[in-house]
């Protein structure tokens, strides 16, 4: 019996150990991302971690391979408008080229959208390139 997608992937928040699982090389599939040392990664990780729920990075790990195959992040903007409301901004969504077509992008966007709702965002904004528009429309944007 073929393994289902749910059991093959772990979806969760970025961890320090994800550096060794190819986080930076995965980001390089989205845009230019120069190599950084583990120390630099840990320093930035701690800065982001200090922001708690206002900056969350989601990762998807292929559990058998122990490598990351998808990621995305959300920033929560604190506003004065709408009664001191909050707006989520989804950014930097990338799926490993070898893992596309498995709905991992939908899982990343779903994870981030659920987080936005859990912290009280009244809306979530996602900007993308025109050729990615169809995908994000299927995700509800």
Automatic annotation (TrEMBL):
It catalyses: D-glucosamine 6-phosphate + acetyl-CoA = N-acetyl-D-glucosamine 6-phosphate + CoA + H(+). Keywords: Acyltransferase, Endoplasmic reticulum, Membrane, Transferase. Its EC number is 2.3.1.4. The keyword Magnesium does not apply. Its main location: endoplasmic reticulum. Residues 14-141 form the N-acetyltransferase domain. It is a peripheral membrane protein. GO terms for biological process: N-acetylglucosamine metabolic process; UDP-N-acetylglucosamine biosynthetic process. InterPro entries: Acyl_CoA_acyltransferase (IPR016181), GNAT_dom (IPR000182), GNPNAT1-like (IPR039143). It comes from the Eukaryota. One of its GO terms (molecular function) is glucosamine 6-phosphate N-acetyltransferase activity. Pathway: Nucleotide-sugar biosynthesis; UDP-N-acetyl-alpha-D-glucosamine biosynthesis; N-acetyl-alpha-D-glucosamine 1-phosphate from alpha-D-glucosamine 6-phosphate (route I): step 1/2. It is found in: Endoplasmic reticulum membrane. The keyword Endoplasmic reticulum applies. GO terms for cellular component: endoplasmic reticulum membrane. Belongs to the acetyltransferase family. GNA1 subfamily. Homodimer. This is Glucosamine 6-phosphate N-acetyltransferase. The lineage of its organism: Eukaryota, Viridiplantae, Streptophyta, Embryophyta, Tracheophyta.
């Amino acid at each position: 019996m073929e393994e289902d997608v749910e059991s093959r992937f772990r979806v969760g928040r970025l961890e320090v150990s994800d550096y060794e699982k190819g986080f930076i090389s995965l980001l390089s599939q989205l845009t230019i991302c120069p190599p950084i040392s583990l120390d630099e990664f840990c320093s930035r990780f701690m800065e982001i971690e200090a922001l708690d729920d206002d900056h969350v990075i989601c990762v998807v790990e292929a559990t058998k391979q122990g490598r990351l195959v998808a990621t995305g992040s959300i920033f929560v903007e604190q506003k004065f408008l709408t009664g001191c409301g909050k707006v989520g901004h989804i950014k930097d969504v990338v799926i490993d080229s070898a893992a596309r077509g498995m709905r991992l992008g939908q899982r990343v966007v779903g994870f981030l959208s659920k987080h936005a709702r859990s912290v009280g965002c009244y809306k979530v904004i996602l900007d993308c390139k025109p050729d990615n528009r169809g995908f994000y429309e299927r995700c509800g944007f």
